[in-house]
Design goal:
Layout (H helix, E strand, L loop, with lengths): L11 H13 L4 H16 L1 H12 L3 E4 L6 H6 L3 E4 L20 H11 L6 E7 L3 H13 L4 E5 L10 H20 L5 H27 L6 H11 L4 H17 L9 E7 L5 H9 L2 E7 L4 H4 L9 H11 L10 H14 L4 E7 L9 H10 L4 E6 L7 H13 L1
Parallel strand pairs: 1-2, 1-3, 3-4, 5-6, 5-7, 7-8
Helix pairs in contact: 2-9, 2-10, 5-6, 7-13, 8-10, 9-11, 14-15
C-alpha cells in the first residue's frame, strides 16, 4: 500500500490535517477514505479546482462537453482537458438565447459562460455530437469571451461508409488547429505518452468498476460517480497514481455480505446527479454497471499503437462504445445492454434521461423491445436538476425494482 497526496484546494490547514491523518493510520484506511472524499470535493466544486490548478501549474485549461473530445491530443499539446459541469441553478441569461425546453445541462454551461465564471479557460472544444451541442457552439462563439474555440465535426453515423476516414481527417484537423493556437508542435512521441497515460487511467477505472460489480458494498454508487467525474477534471498524472492507490486499497478489503439490493444497469447520455445513485439504493437497488459517458463509455476502449497515432485514436471512437446521439442501429445498443446485464448479473436496465434531452427517447422503443425479447426488464426515468422534488420518479423506480 502506498499513499498519494491528492491536491487540496480547500486550505493549507486542511492539507495539514490530512498529513496528520496519514501518520495515525498505518493501515491506510482513514487516508483512503479521505481520498474518496477528495474526489467528491473535486467533482462537487470543479471550477475551484480548475482555478487552483491554473494558478499552481500555469497550465492552460481547455474545456470540453463530450467524451468524443480527443483528450489525448489536448494533453499531448501540454494543455489540461477539463469537462465543463452543470450547476443546477437558474439560467436567466442563457434563456435569452435558448428555449426553456432545451437541454438543462446545455443551458447551465452557457449560463456560466455568460456570467464570466469560466475565466480560467484558455479555450473550449465542441465535438458536434448532438444538435444541442451544435447550437450551443454557435451561441458560445458569438457571446462567450473565450480565447480559442474549436469545433470537431464527427460523422453522423459511426458505422457508415467512410466514417473511419472522416473521423481521421477531423482529428488531424483538430491537431493542426490546436498546434496553431497553442503555438507548439504536437509530436508523435507526446501522443504516444498521452496514449500510455490515458490507457492506464482507463484500465484503473475499469478495474474499479469490475471490483465494485463483484462486491457493490465496497463503494457507494455516488462515490464511484464522483471518482469518474473527478477523472475528467483532475491533473491526469496525479490522477493515474491516485486511482492505482485506491484500487489496491479496495482490492485488499474483505467482501461485504450481500444486502439484498436488486442489481441494475443504468443507460443514457450521462448522469449529472450524484444523488441519483443514492435514490436507486434507497429504492432497493444498486447500480453495478452503466452505459454512460460519465461512466463506462469514458473508460472503455484501449488505444493500440500498432498504427499511426491519429488512426489509433479514430479507431477507438469508431469501434468503441456508441453514444445514443449517434444514428447507428438502436438494435445493436439493445444487444449491448443485454450483454452488459448478463455479464454483471443485473436484474434490469434503468434508462436515465435528462429533462429535454432528445437522444435517449430517440430509438428507445427498439432498444426496449430488444431487451424484452431477452427477458431483461427496463424502465425510463426522466430527471431534472432537483431530484428531491421528484416523488413520482422515486415511486416508479421503487415499483420497478420491487417487480423484477
Amino acid at each position: 500500500m502506498y499513499y498519494v497526496q491528492l491536491p487540496s484546494f480547500a486550505s493549507e490547514n486542511f492539507i495539514f490535517q490530512r498529513r496528520a491523518v496519514k501518520q495515525i493510520s498505518p493501515g491506510g484506511q482513514i487516508v483512503m477514505i479521505e481520498q474518496v472524499r477528495e474526489f467528491a470535493r473535486m467533482a462537487g466544486n470543479p471550477l475551484a479546482y480548475a482555478e487552483h490548478l491554473m494558478k499552481k501549474d500555469g497550465k492552460p485549461v481547455f474545456g470540453y462537453f463530450c467524451s468524443y473530445t480527443p483528450e489525448e491530443i489536448i494533453h499531448a499539446a501540454g494543455l489540461h482537458p477539463f469537462r465543463l459541469p452543470g450547476t443546477g441553478g437558474a439560467t436567466p441569461h442563457a434563456d435569452e438565447h435558448l428555449r426553456s425546453c432545451s437541454c438543462e445541462l446545455i443551458r447551465e454551461t452557457l449560463e456560466q459562460a455568460l456570467e464570466g465564471r469560466f475565466g480560467f479557460l484558455h479555450g473550449v472544444v465542441f465535438p458536434r455530437s448532438c444538435d444541442a451541442i451544435r447550437r450551443l457552439s454557435d451561441i458560445w462563439r458569438l457571446r462567450a469571451k473565450i480565447r480559442y474555440h474549436f469545433d470537431i465535426d464527427l460523422p453522423a453515423r459511426l458505422d457508415g461508409e467512410g466514417s473511419r476516414e472522416f473521423m481521421i481527417d477531423a482529428l488531424k484537423k483538430f491537431r493542426r488547429d490546436l498546434e496553431t493556437a497553442a503555438k507548439t508542435c504536437i509530436t508523435d512521441s507526446a501522443m504516444d505518452h498521452a496514449f500510455d497515460l490515458y490507457n492506464s487511467i482507463r484500465s484503473s477505472l475499469k478495474n474499479l468498476y469490475l471490483l465494485r460489480s463483484a462486491n457493490p458494498g465496497l463503494l457507494s454508487g455516488g462515490d464511484l460517480h464522483s471518482i469518474v467525474r473527478a477523472c475528467m477534471i483532475m491533473e491526469r498524472c496525479e490522477l493515474d497514481i491516485a486511482l492505482k492507490s485506491l484500487f489496491e486499497w479496495l482490492k485488499a478489503k474483505p467482501a461485504s455480505p450481500p444486502d439484498g439490493k436488486k442489481r441494475v444497469v443504468v443507460a443514457g447520455i450521462l448522469c449529472d446527479h450524484p444523488d441519483f445513485y443514492a435514490l436507486v439504493e434507497r429504492c432497493g437497488g444498486t447500480v453495478v454497471w452503466d452505459d454512460l459517458c460519465t461512466g463506462s463509455r469514458y473508460f472503455e476502449g484501449i488505444i493500440t499503437e500498432d498504427i499511426n497515432s491519429i488512426a489509433s485514436l479514430a479507431r477507438r471512437y469508431i469501434d468503441g462504445p456508441v453514444c445514443p446521439s449517434d444514428l447507428s442501429s438502436p438494435g445493436s445498443r439493445g444487444e449491448k445492454l443485454v450483454r452488459m446485464a448478463k455479464e454483471h448479473s443485473a436484474r434490469g436496465v434503468v434508462f436515465l434521461s435528462l429533462k429535454y434531452c432528445e437522444s435517449i427517447p430517440n430509438g428507445f422503443s427498439v432498444v426496449r423491445e430488444t431487451l424484452e425479447k431477452s427477458g431483461v426488464p427496463s424502465i425510463m426515468v426522466e430527471v431534472d436538476r432537483d431530484l428531491s422534488a421528484q416523488d413520482e420518479t422515486e415511486e416508479r423506480l421503487q415499483r420497478f425494482l420491487e417487480g423484477i
